Amino acid sequence: MRKIFLAFDVILSSVLGILDLLIFDFFLHRTARIIVPLVSFGRFEVEKIYSADIDFNWLGLKRLPSGRFLLNSTMSMFAGAVFWLLCLVAYLAFMRGV
User: Quick check: 80 and 90 in contact, CB under 8 A?
Assistant: First the structure.
């Protein structure tokens, strides 16, 4: 019986790992790579998803030599999540007629 639970645990963790990769690493980061430069009128850009850049401040920003700001990939996923949360709030507000 323990082997069945162990196999179920391994399968479940693999499935959740794949979902984490698809949702957070792909979907939210790609959303932020489109939305952040549009909202900031090109003043901010998002770092590549698996970049090993360092020297970001606590907000996840770093000034580039060109004067633009670079947003690290962790904060870009947060920005993508905020965007989709705001889309959900706007959808619910318009559907309820508020």
Answer: no
> How much is the pTM?
0.74
Of the candidates 93, 78, 92, the one whose C-alpha atom is nearest the C-alpha of residue 32 is: 78
Q: Sketch the domain layout of the chain as residue ranges.
A: 2-96
Judged by DSSP in three states, 69 sits in strand
User: In a 3-state reduction of DSSP, which class is residue 4?
Assistant: helix
Check if the beta carbon of residue 32 is closer than 8 Å to that of residue 84: no
Dist. CA 78–CA 7, nearest whole Å: 33
State pLDDT tens for residues 40-57.
999 999 998 877 788 889
